[in-house]
Design brief:
Layout (H helix, E strand, L loop, with lengths): L7 H26 L6 E5 L6 H17 L3 E5 L6 H8 L7 E6 H11 L11 E17 L7 H10 L5 E4 L5 H13 L4 E4 L3 H9 L5 E5 H10 L2 E6 L25 E9 L4 H15 L2 H9 L3 E5 L1 H22 L5
Parallel strand pairs: 1-2, 1-3, 5-6, 5-7
Antiparallel strand pairs: 3-9, 4-7, 4-8, 4-9, 4-10
Helix pairs in contact: 1-9, 2-8, 2-9, 4-11
Length: 333
């Protein structure tokens, strides 16, 4: 059979279809090239002034500079991070709404409150990058006659009605750390939850609390000014920022070690090219010498980690904290 040339209409259709396919294939790179086209919102699920907020503002600036965009911090505190996380879970997966996530909102809340949360605590988010780890520190009111952890334990036993400690919320990593300390140290103190650690620190300095557990970052200013007294850090080794403060293991609780951490998360379903732009921006921005220096000044430990590695780390954290909660016999619901 003789082959006839294709009618003009058919040729035009194929050419049109080919152009559409080429445009579709080019869309991801074009989308990444044009990102960000408007300000990015970094939701901090805790009030302003706390350790998460302090690191988030540093990360927001470095990310914005790295991707030549504007990253705005939006504090939405309450419910140990659940309110802010819920806000991000309802956002569009376009990379323009990010979550400043820490171990409390990323791991402990999903373990203890998963069924009661208004969003899927795991399926709603995906890691972008980790910025740093944050050692936890126990500080006490400077007027309490205790110079170290063991002396404070003795003080709590002699003053049971005054023995209390504040944290940034029920079910937070600080709350869990406090309960583990009480169990392993064989002493008692009443937990007083706040909507954010900054308010707890103010009450500690005002004499309304005996102690506060928070990240070193949120407490460095008060420690350095002498407004509070640091008596123990939660990590395996002493903090470089507080070299004179012993670990809890050194202070008499063998094997005690944990820390918080700070990472940037996006809405699950964010386009891979946009996620890659954000990942590169966070890692490059927070690796700049001025950012590393500032993190160390705040007592944080720079711990850059890309999206894939952070996803593995994130999942491993669930195993650790489930075991810790079970070992302590705690019901944080």
């Amino acid at each position: 059979m003789e082959k006839r040339p294709l009618p003009d209409l058919t040729r035009r259709g194929l050419l049109s279809g080919g152009c559409a396919l080429a445009a579709l294939l080019a869309a991801p790179s074009a989308r990444a090239a044009g990102f960000p086209a408007r300000p990015i919102r970094l939701v901090v699920p805790y009030p302003a002034g706390g350790s998460t907020d302090i690191v988030a503002r540093l990360a927001a600036k470095q990310l914005g500079d790295a991707i030549h965009g504007n990253v705005v911090v939006d504090n939405k505190g309450g419910a140990a991070g659940a309110i802010g996380a819920s806000d991000v879970a309802r956002s569009q997966p376009d990379g323009y709404t990010l979550l400043a996530n820490i171990v409390t909102s990323a791991v402990i809340m999903p373990i203890t409150q998963g069924k009661n949360l208004a969003y899927d605590p795991i399926g709603a988010f995906q890691p972008v990058a980790m910025v740093c780890k944050l050692p936890n520190v126990l500080v006490i009111n400077k007027d309490i006659p205790a110079r170290n952890f063991q002396e404070f334990v003795a003080w709590t036993r002699a003053n049971p009605k005054r023995a209390n400690y504040g944290t940034g919320g029920t079910g937070s990593v600080m709350h869990l750390t406090g309960e583990l300390l009480k169990r392993d140290g064989k002493f008692d103190m009443v937990h007083v939850p706040y909507k954010g650690a900054a308010a707890a620190i103010q009450d500690l300095m005002g004499g309304n609390l005996a102690a506060v557990l928070d990240n070193i970052t949120g407490l460095m200013g008060a420690i350095r000014s002498g407004s509070v007294r640091a008596i123990g850090v939660s990590t395996e080794q002493r903090s470089v920022a507080l070299p004179d403060v012993p670990t809890f293991a050194e202070a008499g609780i063998p094997g005690f070690a944990n820390s918080s951490w700070f990472g940037v998360f996006a809405r699950a379903g964010t386009p891979p090219d946009v996620l890659a732009t954000l990942e590169k921006g966070v890692l490059e921005g927070c690796a700049r010498p001025e950012a590393v220096t500032r993190l160390r000044e705040l007592g944080a430990v720079p711990a850059p980690m890309g999206a894939s590695a952070m996803d593995t780390f994130w999942k491993a954290e669930f195993t650790y904290w489930r075991k810790a909660i079970a070992a302590a016999g705690l019901d944080l619901n």
